Write the structure tokens for this entry.
Amino acid sequence: MKRRDRTLTEIASKHLNIPTLRTRKSDSLDFHDVSVWAVRSALKAAFDAGTRSAGKNAESQDLARKVSVEAAPSTSLLIRKGMSLVPGKFYLRLYHGRNDPEQQMDEWGFVGPTFGPLSSYVHTYCCTFRIHGESDTSELWLDTHDDMIRWDGCFYGDMEAFIAGIDDKA
């Protein structure tokens, strides 16, 4: 359960006497009579939690930017944006990027980095991603954060492993 969902469940329990926010397919369990002052109290608690979270997210984004600038991953497998890819070679690209893992995506986010050419891609226990360079002993581990891939202080919800075509660019 995500932090936001845990917070909302705690607020519902404390202020509205609703033990869970999961649908239980029973009118007596899914519908509740609550007072307006309890609703007001719950809304205030949710607003305050959001305000605290926004402050923490701003601080963590600033820290992530500083860390990524100071310790940006260095690898020969990273292809600079706009560079032509070698046709017929194997690459990996990250998509649906965001700076904050809690960000709700209304759009597709930004396109991330392209890595390659690769000899292999290894995905272990749905949490560790390793890619290996084609012509040398380069190996890169891509970390995960919840259900996203983390790279250089950004978070990506999608990736593509592909063979480059004639006109493909990073």
User: Anything to note?
Assistant: Residues 64-72 have pLDDT under 50 and may be disordered. The longest strand covers residues 114-124.
